[in-house]
Design goal:
alpha+beta; 152 residues; Alpha-D-Glucose-1,6-Bisphosphate, Chain A, domain 4; 4 helices
Amino acid sequence: MKEKAQILDTGVPLFFKAQLEINAPAQKIFDFISCPANHQLMDGSGMVRGSIRGGSRLYLGAKFGMKMKIGIAYIIQNQVVEFQENKVIAWRHVLHNVWRYELTEVDANTTLVTESWDGRQARSKWWVADSGEWVPTAMAKTLVKLKGLMQG
């Protein structure tokens, strides 16, 4: 049976969540997510093409650029807006959409990873209006890819 992440119903427009239990320590997962060069490896949307700016490890306030593609190629600048070592990391770009990863330790070798996407504060509502059609599925795919990378 193919692995699937659970898409959670938040009941809130433009706010989506998915979660998946991963058999790996929270620190290992957090270290992976905190490295922008890894984002292309775990991306379930197919949009992330690679990192271009930023350090090898994110921190609160860190800025990093990513190569992206939705029909056309573009570059997006992100900034880390939340950071709690081994627990929470979140970043947003110029339109203020926020991607957030919460890591909850189940035991020393098991972590519940919850990814959320928050477009409620987006500067351009028309740009994110169709997000409910693809964002939750992309997040679920990201979590499955992350699990494969962490357990593989």
